[in-house]
């Protein structure tokens, strides 16, 4: 009997739109990395830091189409990823500035996001960041990102019982299970799109 073919390892670039150290959205992404290590073979979540990116300014681009070193390094990580998991906080009903800045830098010149799958998780007040998710999906249309539709995860972070500890780490087991379902959907969708290539 032949051994089953090994599943390819799918590299998930996890990008948090909040730069705050104890960000709840960062906590969701850390939990996602832990869930993958514990229970989802073939899926690896790598955090991609966007805090060092300069604000988008095309004057920083070189005459031959080059970018500042921090931007080049970020674009390389985006290109190397098989798919993306965005932790998208909601600021004033929309996407946080650091995340929009990262999206814009990696779309300059050759669009590094194009034709790759993605998922969004968010945490916050009100709708749990849900409105930022819809704006991110709208931006993704132009970037040719392919978002999973379901399941959605928007955590109402300030409702009781507490969902996060004082360091922003997820402590809610039910939300952790919901993150797992998002990741399984992203994994299946990524494999499906890769088979079409």
Q: Looking at CATH, which topology would you report?
A: Rossmann fold
CA distance, first residue to last residue: 29 Å
Instruction: Sketch the topology as an H/E string, one letter per element.
Output: EHEHEEEHEHEEH
Task: Report on the biggest sheet.
Answer: 6 strands, parallel
Overall strand count: 8
Shape: globular
- Supply the number of helical segments: 5
Strand content: 15-25%
Task: Provide the gyration radius in Å.
Answer: 17 Å
Low-confidence stretches: none
Structural class: alpha/beta
Average pLDDT metric? 95
What is the helix content?
A: 25-40%
Whole-number total of structural domains: 1
- Multimerization state: single chain
CATH architecture: 3-Layer(aba) Sandwich
Family: Belongs to the SsuE family.
Function: The enzyme apparently serves as a quinone reductase in connection with conjugation reactions of hydroquinones involved in detoxification pathways.
Subunit structure: Homotetramer.
Catalytic activity: a quinone + NADH + H(+) = a quinol + NAD(+); a quinone + NADPH + H(+) = a quinol + NADP(+)
């Amino acid at each position: 009997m032949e051994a089953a073919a090994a599943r390819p390892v799918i590299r998930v670039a996890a990008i948090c739109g909040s730069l705050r150290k104890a960000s709840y959205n960062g906590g969701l992404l850390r939990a996602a990395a832990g869930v993958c290590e514990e229970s989802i073979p073939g899926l690896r979540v790598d955090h991609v830091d966007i805090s060092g990116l300069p604000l988008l300014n095309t004057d920083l681009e070189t005459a031959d189409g080059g970018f500042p070193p921090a931007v080049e390094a970020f674009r390389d990580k985006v290109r190397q990823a098989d798919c993306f998991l965005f932790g998208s906080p909601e600021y004033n009903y929309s996407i946080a500035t650091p995340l929009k800045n990262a999206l814009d830098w990696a779309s300059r010149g050759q669009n590094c996001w194009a034709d790759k799958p993605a998922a969004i998780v968010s945490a916050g007040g009100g709708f749990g960041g849900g409105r930022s998710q819809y704006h991110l999906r709208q931006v993704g249309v132009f970037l040719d990102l392919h978002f999973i539709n379901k399941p959605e995860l928007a955590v109402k972070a300030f409702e009781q019982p507490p969902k996060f500890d004082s360091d922003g780490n997820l402590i809610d087991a039910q939300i952790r299970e919901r993150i797992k379902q998002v990741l399984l959907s992203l994994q299946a969708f990524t494999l499906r799109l890769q088979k079409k290539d």
